[in-house]
Design a protein that fits this description.
The complex is a heterodimer.
Chain A (H helix, E strand, L loop, with lengths): L3 E4 L2 E4 L5 E7 L5 E8 L3 E10 L2 E4 L7 E2 L9 E3 L8 E8 L11 E2 L3 E5 L1
Parallel strand pairs in A: 2-11
Antiparallel strand pairs in A: 1-3, 3-8, 4-5, 4-9, 5-6, 7-8, 9-10, 9-11
Chain B lengths: L2 E5 L2 E5 L4 E8 L5 E7 L5 E6 L6 E3 L2 E6 L4 E6 L8 E8 L3 E3 L3 E6 L1
Parallel strand pairs in B: 2-11
Antiparallel strand pairs in B: 1-3, 3-8, 4-5, 4-9, 6-7, 7-8, 9-10, 9-11
Classes of the chains: A mainly beta, B mainly beta.
Chain lengths: 116, 108
């Protein structure tokens, strides 16, 4: 079954404690992306990756890191989480067939992070 | 700065009504406009529009893109309670830029 898998689904942690949210896709997609969703603000892109070893900042990259060492995985790292990073996070992937995410994105089920 | 704006932000109607959701975009190197439906979990894909004036249809849902006006609409006819969701539109270029979403509530 084609899917994007995020872990964990829920996490409550404290300020400053490094955490990683994993994302894996089994569709051999080139393009992967992280979004955060906050009430009234829609989905905002954090980072995206066009392919292995190629990553770029989205609209709200501050406080986050990513890496793309393998095509299927795109982890999101919060080195020193703060309460304003409390949010619902989605990982997504798509085929590119060119230079961008021109095909519909497949989304993971989301990770709800609470930073106390 | 790229932006996508949806209206209304919230809409409450009765079952059986027809609704029109709006999306306007300013996206550099725009390639396509996508609509998603989000219920309790992840957004699910509805439509991708790349050509102006060509309506895409799926059951009671339809959508059209107007590249001259930099806008798109999503129509839902004969609404059902199962249509209650947040509807998101996004402009696609090198990255995907989402609007704030329209929260649609269908009352029986």
């Amino acid at each position: 079954e084609a899917q994007v898998t995020q872990n964990p689904r829920y996490l409550i942690t404290v300020t400053g404690k490094k955490l990683t949210v994993t994302c894996s896709q089994n569709m051999n997609h080139e393009y992967m992306s992280w979004y955060r969703q906050d009430p009234g603000l829609g989905l905002r892109q954090i980072y995206y990756s066009m392919n292995v070893e190629v990553t770029d900042k989205g609209d709200v990259p501050e406080g986050y890191k990513v890496s793309r060492k393998e095509k299927r995985n795109f982890p999101l790292i919060l080195e020193s989480p703060s309460p304003n990073q409390t949010s619902l996070y989605f990982c997504a992937s798509s085929s590119t067939r060119g230079q961008g995410p021109y095909q519909p994105q497949h989304f993971g089920d989301g990770t709800r992070l609470s930073i106390l | 700065e790229d932006k996508v704006v949806q209206s209304p932000l919230s809409l409450v109607v009765h079952e059986g009504d027809t609704v029109t959701l709006n999306c306007s975009y300013e996206v550099t190197n725009f390639r396509s406009l996508l609509w998603y439906k989000q219920e309790k979990k992840a957004p699910t894909f509805l439509f991708m529009l790349t050509s102006s004036g060509i309506e895409k249809k799926s059951g009671r849902l339809s959508s059209i893109l107007d590249k001259k006006e930099l806008s798109s609409i999503l129509n839902i006819t004969a609404t059902q309670t199962g249509d209650s969701a947040i509807y998101l539109c996004a402009g696609s270029a090198q990255k995907l830029v989402f609007g704030q979403g329209t929260r649609l509530t269908i009352n029986p």
